[in-house]
Design brief:
A two-stranded antiparallel sheet has the order 1-2. By secondary structure, it is mainly alpha-helical. 84% of the residues lie in helices and 6% in strands. It has two helices and two strands; from the N terminus they run αββα. The termini are far apart. The protein is rod-shaped, with a radius of gyration of 53 Å.
Amino acid sequence: MNGQTMDEEENRIVMFDDMQQARIYPPDRFNEGVALQEQASGFVDKLQNFQTVVTSVVSAVEQQGTQIDQQKLKAIGLRLKVKGEAEIRKRKEAELRLRVKEKQMELDRYVAQHNYLRKVEQEQRQLIERLSFTD
């Protein structure tokens, strides 16, 4: 029978595949198929574990990225705030210097006015003294 002995034909295994078709396998091929199926199942399990690890790593990296972005934005905000504070200080310093200059000018005017009034007072006293002696 097609070059096969009776023992070889008796050692075949009848199975049904995924499509419910009957299949006849020699024992060595059947054992290879079972081993291959077990290896494939192990590979699928390892692949699923790998996918789980990759998913958790990606999630952790995304979370770290989000935190880094938040810290960057915070740092940029603080830098702008510091820069703004420096500009505010410069502006305030300029305002205060202007105010001091205005007050100094006002003081100079008051000193000049005071000196003028003292001079006028002295002249009036001298005039009073002259007028009092002439009487």
